[in-house]
Design a protein that fits this description.
alpha/beta
Length: about 270
Amino acid sequence: MSDSICDNTDGRINIGGLLFDNVDMDETVVRIDDIIRAYRSGRTQHSAFGLVANQDIINKKKLFPDMSDDVLNRSALTFPDGYSIVVASKMLGTPLKCRVAGPDLMWKVVTERRDYSHFFLGAADGVAQKMADRFRSEFGDIKVAGIYTPPFCAEFTSEENDKMIEMVNRSECDILWVSFGCPKQERWIVNNIERLRVPITLGVGAAFDFHSGNVKRAPLWMQNMKLEWLFRITQSPKRLFGRYFNGGVTFYRTIKHQKKMMKKQKLSNIKEEK
C-alpha cells in the first residue's frame, strides 16, 4: 500500500491515495467554468482533466502502472461520484461536503451552460447519438461539436487512438465527455491528455446510457436514500454484483488501512514534538 494515502496536498482530501476537492455540485460547475475560461483566454494552453472518482477506480488503479496516484492526482478537479467516498471521508475524519454524481454533473453542465460545445466520445453503438438527440430535442440550442463511438476492444490500436484525438482536436470543443467505463476511460484520458487540445476532459461512464434512455436510472427516492447501487445491481447483476460487494470489501480494507496509517503518523508527530 502506498504511503501517499497519508499525504494531503493543497487542502484536498485524501481518500485511498486520491486527492479530492471538497466541492458541492455548484462549486464543481464553477471550477469547470474557470478552467474553460482560462483556456479560452490563453491564460493556460494545457488541457485539463477532471476525475469523476468512486470506489471502483480506487480499487482498480493499483492494477495499472499508468494509473498511479501521482498521475491521477494531476487532475485539475477530483470529486466524489459515489456515496462510499463520502462515507469514507467521514470515517477518516476529513468529511467531504457531498456526492457529486457524474451523470448529474453532465446534465447540469450540458443543459445550463449553453455557450459550451461538447464532444461525446464512447459508449455502445448509437448511444452517444441518441443522447445528443435527446439533448437537442429538449434543449434546442445545445452545441454538439462531435460524436464518435470507437470499436469495442480492450485496447485501441495506435491508428484508432490517433483518429479519436484528431477528431476531438479538430472539433474545437470546450468539453470532452468520455464513456469507456472504468478504468479504461481514466487510463485513456491520462495517457492522451497531453495530446488533446480541449479545455477539460471528463470520464463519466454510465452517464451516456442514462441520458440516452438506454439504461434506466434509479428513481430519485432511491438516489436520496443512497440506494442507487442496489438498483443498478438489479439491472445488471452478473456485471455489477462483484463490483459493488467484493469491491466494497476491498475498498473498506483500503480505508481501514489508511485510517490506521493516519493514526500511526499522528502518534509519531506527537512523539517528535515532545
